[in-house]
Specification:
single chain, 164 residues, mainly alpha
Length: 164
């Protein structure tokens, strides 16, 4: 009887040791998953911050372009007004709201696109021409105002097409 009891306790100890090992392995997996999630979170934060910096730079360049363009337009407009009717200018123009400005931009872009559609090369043709001139993919992306990966993919497709 004591032999059976010792055997039973021995088996119970082995079972408990296996349970502890399994729990330890699970805990290590969870710790590893947590590390991977932290790494992914840091990478995504870096990507978002880089994207935000890029947006900030684009906004600054847009604002500087916007600030310079109305001055030129005002000067030429003032010259035309003084030539035509100097008394016609009595009131100052009201400030442009964001909604009005976005509509103006949209109409300008639409007009420009309508005139450029016929004479403009396709994006793929422009990328091929610039790559033949020796520009890198990042320079092509900046010049065409497109993403670097998009340009690289087009160049790879072009290489694959020319190789086959």
């Amino acid at each position: 009887m004591i032999g059976i009891l010792i055997f039973f306790l021995f088996m119970l100890n082995i079972f408990l040791i296996l349970a502890v090992v399994i729990l330890y392995q699970r805990q290590n997996r969870f710790i590893e998953i947590e590390r991977n999630q932290r790494k992914i979170q840091e990478e995504s934060e870096e990507m978002l911050s880089a994207f935000l910096l890029e947006l900030k730079e684009e906004n600054k360049s847009f604002i500087t372009q916007f600030q310079h363009s109305p001055k030129n337009n005002k000067q030429s407009g003032d010259e035309q007004l003084t030539k035509i009717e100097p008394e016609a200018v009595v009131e100052k123009e009201a400030p442009i709201t964001a909604e009005t400005y976005s509509r103006l931009l949209a109409t300008e872009v639409y007009k420009n696109n309508q005139t450029e559609v016929d004479t403009k090369k396709t994006f793929a043709e422009q990328v091929e021409d610039l790559s033949q001139k020796g520009l890198s993919s990042s320079e092509i992306a900046k010049q065409l105002k497109k993403g670097k990966t998009e340009v690289e993919l087009l160049l790879k497709f072009h290489e694959n097409r020319s190789n086959t």
